[in-house]
Amino acid sequence: MSNIEETGPEVEEEGDIIIGADEVDEVVDDDKSDHEPMDEDYEDDGLDDNGVTINEDGNIEIDMSNNSQSYFEDHSDSIFTVATHPTLPIAVTGGGDNAAYLWTTHSSPAKTITKLAGYGESVVAAEFTFDGSYLVTGDMSGKVIVYKSAKRGQLWEPYSRTLEDVEEVMWISTHPKQNVFAFGGIDGSVSVYSIEPTLDLIFSGYSHSTECTNASSRLTAPT
């Protein structure tokens, strides 16, 4: 009986892999200068469009100078709401100091027209009516106070009575064509009032089961 020797496929031993010059598309020299950080070759020309500079130590410096057209800084706490008059250069701000301020926007610094007090908590909502004759404000204690304008916005006096329908006011929205406004409470309620003649309630209801924070509710004028 003859011995049969089984042979498998030949396995080439691994060796050095040699690539011919004709197999190379491009030769790139190893230039160490290409690996240098880009910021060392970049020459900073100083101030950029955002008022940011990089000093000699590589630290970023931000220009915090006040270049605003007008500014107001009478509040002693955070500001939560800002609204502007539709026709006059007047703004109102309400803050965590339980107050609202009316001030001019065409002078720098701004001039205070009046401070609105009588709130029990932070003033978080404020809106002028469509013609600017009234200002409606609300705070976190649930107070809604309406002010009437006189002497072309130089005098603002409380109008009628203070509303206290909700535990906390979340938003205020005024009607675009009539002296009507709506406000939402933390309990999800929405109340709509006609300012003239004596702050008459024309609608009250609930729009959500949780707090109502969206002032896009449908607001219609009485017929």
TrEMBL record:
Alphabetical list of SMART domains matching this protein: WD40 (SM00320)
Which of UniProt's keywords are assigned here? Repeat, WD repeat
The protein's matches in SUPFAM superfamilies, at most eight in alphabetical order, are given as: WD40 repeat-like (SSF50978)
One of this protein's Pfam families, by short name? Answer: WD40
**Disordered: annotated span:** 1-51
- Biased composition (Acidic residues) is annotated at 7-29, 37-48
Q: Which domain of life is it from?
A: Eukaryota
Which ranges does the UniProt record give for the WD repeats? 72-113
- InterPro entries, per this entry? WD40/YVTN_repeat-like_dom_sf, WD40_repeat_dom_sf, WD40_rpt, WD_repeat_multifunction
Protein name (database record): Uncharacterized protein
Q: Which species does the entry assign this protein to?
A: Pichia membranifaciens
Its lineage reads: Eukaryota, Fungi, Dikarya, Ascomycota, Saccharomycotina
